[in-house]
Design brief:
single chain; 969 residues; alpha+beta; eleven-stranded mixed beta sheet; eight-stranded mixed beta sheet; 23 helices; 51 strands; 24% helix
Length: 969
């Protein structure tokens, strides 16, 4: 029990944006909520200490209740409990072999454990390796989940993924010098090869494979490891967390875990099947208790502030527009959503804004609920014997599910209570909360709807760890029952689906397919389904007695759902609004600072740094380069190549290996020779690559790392001369075609006869078959990835092979959001449109809002970058060719980088930024568009050369002054 001799308990939920605090006071052996506040969470700069926000919450609830919470040193002097998701929740990077198999299953495991997925990378996603590594460097995940291969399956590509991660060297958000936890949940046979690659760079944890066979999944071990690491390591890294931990009278638990605890107590007490959707600003947690099995999933990037754009992208704009009244257009919701993402703590003030958030909430719940079903339940194929054995009254208009135990079948109509939680529900009217839950979940059968009015679930969940009875009592007090929904299933047609009679008033009504009837005062309703119509498995009359409102919903369910939103049925949800739609502009204020700067220029992975300490670097000066892609890894499994049916003893395998660790081998070189014990026949294995022997395993696997002796310049091989054949006949004798990659030492010609084999002198791509000269051309023509200075400065730090830091003086403008990578060039301040021959190679600055036509004009002109205050969100989506989605931007494939100083819509540039840029014409501007709105906020940056850097007058073709133009311009 909690030592609460003071008569009070202080409880907080430290979230990613707000810290919600409540003060509990003793009451008849239990507690009452004496005060409650929300204050900003202080996990980001400049505070970077969660304790500051907790102290602010303590002082605020203390003032409300007239109780002193903190002592003179700022430490709680009453018992203190807390949950935490500070730092933006568990931000994860997921890597797997394929996007459709292991990548997707690993993603399910991450979301099921509460992960907010930053990116998913797979071997088959067609992203160039170097680009992948550059993105990995920029993400700063809390944890990495790596999957790949069924047990006994692919090993080489799994090791390749590990090599990419190791070479990229990602750093954690709050602990750049520490090692990021990495959970490997792939092919168990790959562990011994993956471990040496990853162990030195990551905090490595091995768990069972999430996909052990082609037909089985096993998410639980990975989910448990993720949760354990989140509590033991990731949460510990939030600034000030260790101090907070010392204040707490019980263990700090993650916010979703606390919600799960209190929901489990509620479901157990009432013996009901319960589902709760907790919709936050960034994620939506869905919890379910169905026949005693408790599950939780996190729909990452489904929310109504940070993730409002991502919710629209996931659900589809049409799915959101369907739930909006006439007068609100697509452009309105795109603009509102984009600016809400940039200003996540802003509160809707207009009716149209509320309706847009509600429409997005409906679409988001639908996505999150479907994800919860997909990740936790299996759609059952129900036959006659299944129905008899499980006593399931099969309904063809509902999906039948089962969980871990395939014999436990259920329908969605078996769910008794659906609860909405989060600000979007607690701040909504009763009618709007009903609409969001019904159109989002589409409950079936007879279902009660409720709302957690103040979202005290996390606080009461952590309280339940020390006083479950008091916590459950307070939780039930905080729930507000909204209504009952009666949703029969069957074919939707014009015939009557149900007949209704209210015993209390004597009123009668018949509902046809597609109709909806709302009884605001409840009643004693006799509900009689028509033939062929079911109500939660029953075809007989059902009686519902309640004082709550009742929604009779005959729109159908499953494949028979007619898709009509509740808004289309009139009161209490009218489709039209009399007033014009107004969306007040919201500005993300840009900042302007003049003074010193440090810009770190990093290579995607280890390469060559050209500069030294004290060197003067101009924007176009190359500071380093990566010449080759990371070397490939080859695993030669001798036993597999020979055939496991061959009778080779372990000793024969070991003795037959002809190479040792550290050897260099040629393409085709013999690396194993052995004699089968039964027949005495000799067998051989040859090297598939010119490489170094990285490891030799006793059980018969040889690990080879490619030697990258690529043909950096074209190499011509005289095929006709070697063979003594007509030059025009060489094509028929070649083993390879144009475009094939050829390893050094591979034979180029089939059947050389009595002549020596013709082998490739270098590794490279077969670029040309020249029948006029009788030659083939080999060339490894991958262009070096050159990293330039991008800004004028002096080299003040060098990490050999990795990075160089440039320091200088200038004006730094932090904008609202950026897209499209980096760029630099002389500034050209423009007003309105310009011709296709103007401003090529320049960074175009528009003090006024821009639109799609302006951006297309920049594309045609060949500009090097754009700085503008704002653009309509719909225009941006049209130009970029994809939804804005999340607030992690900057790596888009665009013709030039773009920095918006204020946001979206038609917002003018702030006065300070406008005045600064008005005088920038001709000066060099460097654009850095990397943006991260939540959890370690990063804003895009424009760096203007200081006045003493001068103006660009004589320029080269790239738009730079001759003195600034490096050899790669």
């Amino acid at each position: 029990m909690l030592d609460d001799h003071t008569g009070h308990v202080f409880v907080t939920d430290v979230g990613s944006t707000t810290t919600k605090g409540i003060l509990l006071a003793r009451r008849d052996g239990g507690y009452r909520i004496a005060a409650g506040v929300n204050v900003p969470t202080t996990v980001e700069k400049p505070s970077e200490d969660v304790c500051i926000g907790v102290r602010a919450a303590a002082e605020a609830v203390g003032r409300q209740a007239g109780v002193q919470i903190l002592d003179e040193s700022g430490v709680p002097m009453v018992p203190y409990l807390t949950t935490s998701s500070a730092g933006g929740g568990l931000q994860m990077l997921v890597v797997g072999l394929t996007s459709t198999d292991t990548g997707r299953i690993a993603q399910m495991a991450a979301q099921g454990a509460g992960g907010v997925i930053l990116r998913v990378f797979t071997i088959d996603d067609r992203t160039p390796t170097i680009h992948t590594m550059r993105i990995i460097r920029a993400l700063h995940p809390d944890l990495i989940l790596m999957a790949g291969g069924i047990d006994g399956g692919d090993i080489a590509n799994v090791v390749r993924l590990a090599e990419i991660l190791r070479l990229a060297q990602p750093t954690a958000k709050f602990d750049p010098e520490g090692r990021i936890p990495l959970v490997f949940c792939g092919n168990v046979d790959a562990r011994e090869y993956v471990a040496p690659v990853l162990a030195g760079s990551f905090d490595l944890h091995m768990v069972d494979n999430v996909r052990p066979t082609l037909t089985d999944t096993n998410l639980r071990p990975a989910k448990e490891a993720i949760l354990r690491l989140f509590m033991d390591t990731v949460m510990e890294r939030a600034p000030g967390y260790r101090t907070l931990k010392g204040w707490a009278a019980a263990d700090i638990i993650p916010t979703p875990t606390a919600v799960e605890r209190i929901l489990e107590l509620y479901a157990r007490r009432h013996g009901q099947n319960v589902v709760m959707a907790d919709m936050g600003g960034a994620t939506t947690d869905v919890f379910s208790n169905i026949y005693g099995e408790y599950r939780r999933t996190v729909a990452a990037n489904i929310g109504v502030s940070y993730s409002l754009c991502a919710t629209i992208a996931a659900a589809g704009i049409d799915a959101v527009m369907r739930h909006l009244p006439a007068g609100i257009e697509e452009a309105h919701i795109r603009e509102y959503a984009a600016n809400k993402m940039l200003n996540p703590t802003s509160i809707p003030t207009e009716e149209a804004e509320l309706l847009m958030e509600h429409a997005a909430a409906i679409a988001g719940i639908s996505v999150a609920w479907r994800q919860h079903q997909d990740m936790n339940f299996t759609v059952a194929k129900v036959g006659l014997l299944d129905r008899l054995r499980n006593r399931v009254d099969f309904d063809p208009f509902q999906e039948t599910f089962h969980g871990v135990d395939a014999s436990s079948l259920f329908h969605v109509s078996d769910i008794d209570v659906m609860i909405g939680a989060g600000g979007v529900f607690s701040n909504a009217s009763t009618h709007e909360a009903i609409r969001m839950l019904v159109d989002g979940f589409l409950p079936t059968g007879l279902t009660k709807l409720a709302v957690d009015t103040s979202f005290r679930s996390p606080h009461l969940g952590v309280l339940s760890t020390v006083n479950p009875a008091a916590a459950l009592e307070l939780f039930e007090e905080s729930l507000r029952d909204l209504a009952y929904v009666v949703a029969p299933t069957g074919e939707v047609h014009e015939a009557v689906m149900v007949s209704l009679r209210d015993r209390r008033s004597g009123a009668r009504r018949e509902l046809r397919g597609g109709e909806v009837f709302f009884a605001p005062d409840g009643g004693v309703w006799e509900i009689t389904p028509a033939p062929g119509i079911r109500l939660y498995g029953q075809t007989d009359e059902v009686t519902l007695e309640t004082t709550l409102p009742v929604l009779f919903d005959c729109r159908g369910r499953g494949t028979a759902f007619n898709g009509e939103p509740l808004l289309s049925f009139g009161e209490p949800w009218p489709m039209t609004r009399p007033r014009a739609v107004t969306i007040p502009p919201r500005r993300t204020r840009s900042t302007v600072v003049e003074g010193p700067f440090d810009i770190r220029r990093e290579l995607p992975y280890e390469g060559t740094i050209f500069v030294s300490l004290g060197d003067r670097v101009e924007p176009a000066t190359p500071v380093g380069e990566n010449v080759l892609t990371p070397p490939r890894v080859f695993l030669v499994d001798v036993r597999r190549l020979l055939g496991y049916q061959r009778r080779f003893s372990p000793e024969a395998i070991r003795d037959g290996i002809l190479v040792k660790e550290g050897d260099e081998v040629a393409m085709g070189q013999r690396i194993f020779r052995g004699r089968e014990a039964f027949l005495g026949v000799e067998f051989y294995c040859n090297s598939p690559v010119r490489g170094h022997v990285s490891a030799v395993e006793e059980h018969g696997t040889i690990v080879l790392r490619e030697i990258q002796d690529y043909a950096r310049k074209p190499v011509r091989v005289d095929i006709a001369g070697f063979l003594g054949i007509p030059k025009g006949h060489i094509r028929s004798r070649l083993e390879f075609q144009v475009g094939d990659f050829v390893q050094a030492g591979q034979e180029l010609v089939r059947g050389s006869g009595n002549r020596l084999p013709i082998k490739a002198p270098r590794s490279g791509i077969l670029k040309e078959i020249d029948t006029d000269r009788g030659e083939v051309v080999l060339h490894y023509d991958l262009q070096p990835l050159v990293t330039v200075g991008s800004v004028a400065g002096t080299v003040t730090d060098v990490v050999p092979g990795r990075s160089a830091t440039l320091s200088g003086q200038g004006i730094i403008i932090h904008g609202a959001i950026g897209f499209g990578g980096e760029g630099f060039g002389p500034c050209r301040v423009v007003a309105g449109s310009f011709g296709p021959d103007e401003h090529a190679g320049a960074v175009v600055i528009s003090p006024e809002p821009i639109d799609h036509a302006f951006l297309e004009g920049c594309r045609a002109a060949g500009v090097r970058g754009v700085v503008a205050p704002s653009v309509p969100a719909s225009d941006w989506v049209r130009f970029a060719g994809r939804e804005i989605a999340t607030g992690v931007t900057g790596d888009e494939d665009l013709p030039f980088p773009v920095v918006l100083t204020e946001g979206f819509g038609a917002v003018p540039m702030g006065n300070g930024c406008r005045a600064t840029l008005a005088g920038a014409d001709g000066r060099v501007a460097s654009l850095y568009t990397r943006t991260q709105i939540r959890a370690g906020v990063i804003r895009p940056m424009v760096v203007l050369a200081s006045l003493r850097e001068g103006r660009s007058e004589e320029t080269t073709e790239c738009g730079m002054r001759s003195a600034e133009c490096g050899r790669y311009c």
